[in-house]
Structures are given as C-alpha cells and as structure tokens.
Amino acid sequence: MTPIRLETPAEPLAGVWLGAALAPPALVVLLASLQPFVDPRLLFIDAAEARAETCCAPYLGILSNAGVTMLCIASAAALLACVSVRASRRARRATALAAIFSAWLAVDDSLMLHEYALPAAGLAERAVMAGYGVVAFVCLEQRRVWMRPQAASLLPLAVLMLAASAGIDAVFDLGQAMAPAHWQAVLVTPMTMTMGIVVEDGAKFVGLWLWMICHLNVR
Predict the structure, then answer these.
(1) How far apart are CA 12 and CA 209, in angstroms?
(2) Hey, where are the domains in the chain?
(3) How far apart are alpha carbons 214 and 208 in whole angstroms?
(4) How far is Cα 18 from Cα 56, in angstroms, rounded to an integer?
C-alpha cells in the first residue's frame, strides 16, 4: 500500500498576494485623482499646506492623514511583536527598530519636520532623507526575522514606492529651481503641479499602505 501523505496548505500564490495588497491603495489613489468635485491636490498634500490655500473642509489632506495613521498602525504592530513572549532577541531588536522608525516617520510626516523644522535647525532635508534610507535598508535586511514570508517579499516594494515618491519630489523641486525663467510659465502650471502631486503622493500612499500591511503580518 502506498502511504498517505498529509500535506500542509500551500502558501498563497505570490501574484494573488501582491494583487490583493496593491488593489485597495491603487483604487483609492485612482478615485481621488479622477473625482470631479475638488482639486485632487487638496486630498494628497499635507493638511497644513491645504488649509493654507483654502479653509476648512474636512477632506483637506485626507490621504496624507491616512498615511500618518498607517504609520501609527505599523508602529503599534511592530511594538506588539517586540514584546511578544515568543520573540527571539534578534526579532526583538528588529521589531523595536521598526516600531521606532515607523513612529518617527509618523511624527515627521504629521509635523513636516524634514521639510521645515529640521532644515531650520541646520539639518539639510537631503541628509534627513539619506538617513531614512539607511534605516529603511536595515529594516529590509532584518525583515525575514519577524515577518511572514509573503510580507517579507512585499516590503522591498513598499520601500521602493516610498523612495520613488521622495525621488519625484526631489526632481520636481530641482526642476523648478533650475528651469530658466521663460520655462517656468510652461513647466509650472496648475495642471503640472496637480499631476506631480498626484504621482508623488500617490506613490507615497501606496508605499505606506504596503509598509503597514507588511508590519501587520508577523510570524
């Protein structure tokens, strides 16, 4: 007789996992950018900047505020994983870093520290973003210690989306600063400003969503 083999359920297909993770934020970004009721910029940019332009609708900066909330959730999930009795010492260190980093990013994003406060204190925005990149790289290196395999494979995409958002912002600012005066009227228009914000902050929103999803999937 052939022995009966008991097989464990297979892991979800990578494509299904990726699609399920990407679909919600992509749909939100698409709807926010295509809705005809308000300027999409006002939904994506920081609430403080939006209120400086118009006051005081509840939807101002709603996607930016949602990103801060997602960072808080990620930080709380990593903190719970850190204090878990099952966590190894290495996992505790990795989750502690993830919790602190996510919490700091939430504070930075809500108060716009890297854009105004830290440069005013003498710390250049590029230096701050480079530091964030180093910490994000360390988190990537340690992710398999405490994340489930599907989440660990998805975290690089989250970091890539956040890096793309930061890169688009830097290129956009550089283009505005270096473009000749006669090109400013062509390059810097309400339409191009809106498109730039939607692409930049849309990538950021997707990246923060994926970051949160990964941190919620603990071993």
Answers:
(1) 20
(2) 38-216
(3) 10
(4) 37
Token code pair at residue 209:
């969503």
Longest dimension (CA), the chain: 85
Phi/psi of residue 3, nearest 5 degrees = -65, 145
Q: What is the mean pLDDT of each run of 10 residues along the chain (219 residues)?
A: 42 71 95 92 87 80 95 96 84 95 96 90 91 96 91 93 92 69 65 85 96 92
Phi, psi for 147 (deg, rounded to 5)? -95, 150
C-alpha 168/C-alpha 126 separation (Å) is: 13
Residues 66 and 72: their CA atoms lie apart, in Å, by 10
Extract the tokens encoding 197. 């914000």
* Residue 90 structure tokens: 């290495």
